[in-house]
Amino acid sequence: MSLGVRQPRNFSMEALWELYRLQREKIIGDIFFVDAFAGLNTYDGLSRSSPVQTIAYALDQCVDDHDDYIICMDTWQQDTFPINVNKSRVHILGAGHWGGMYPRMAPTEDTAIFTISTKGYIEIGNFSLGAGATHASIEFISATSEGRSWLHDVWFGHTETGQDGIKSTIGESPEHLIERCVFGKLLTRDGIRLEAVSTRTIIRENLFRLVPGVGIDVVAINTDLGAILDNRFSLEAQAAQGAAITIAAGAVGCMVDGNKAMEAGAATTNNPYEDAGACDWGVNWRGNVVTYPV
After folding, report:
1. What is the pLDDT of residues 234-289, one digit of tens each?
2. Whole-Å CA distances, 57 to 72, 154, 209, 251, 266
3. Structural domain boundaries of the chain?
């Protein structure tokens, strides 16, 4: 039997067992298991039967550039938020959860869930996240370059409130891939808010369900943003201009194609796409009509 890596049919328990198999064969880094209710930080976390209690403690056991995995069997409010992801090449993944699609986390204070302050190469996937009143669930906060992270299959503002889903704040935050996430109506501002330069970042195949502010809000000047592809937005009948995608002045080179802004049976008062820069627009839909941005 070959010991090579095979591709799981779906990212569920089969995929987790595949990671466990790889751990035994030491093809990747260490795998740490987290269970907020059954785990203890005095355990080693190296098996499902001896999980640690918090993601933060599991991160302390990880090593930079070691390709370590943290598998979260169950989470809630046991961590002290924000959880500062300060290790590079680390993967933080939720497992299938009996109480909902993914394990949930919601802070009791006005904080983010995850802050990323390392050089990057972070994977975060399979969670349902809230945030504090003035924070995003996931925030890139370093003044130095912190890029190449993969954020996928996370539900933001779905069952828990928060200001934004994902936000970059200062410095440069390049080459991220954000895909297959859901941004819900319990957010109070934007789904994805880019206040920092996000060179070559790809945002694709996400759902934005009645987000109160802007679905994808490019606030900063981005001279080479990357691409915004095949996202879906549901809008209120009187949604503001640029409610689906707003791109700031000074942004050039971004490919915007295949996005669909869906409306409640009639055209919204305002154009859901706004580009004050000079990006490259393909076929994007407003209801059942192809439209260009204002």
Report:
1. 998 778 999 999 999 988 889 999 999 998 766 667 999 999 999 999 999 998 88
2. 12, 22, 34, 40, 51
3. 71-220
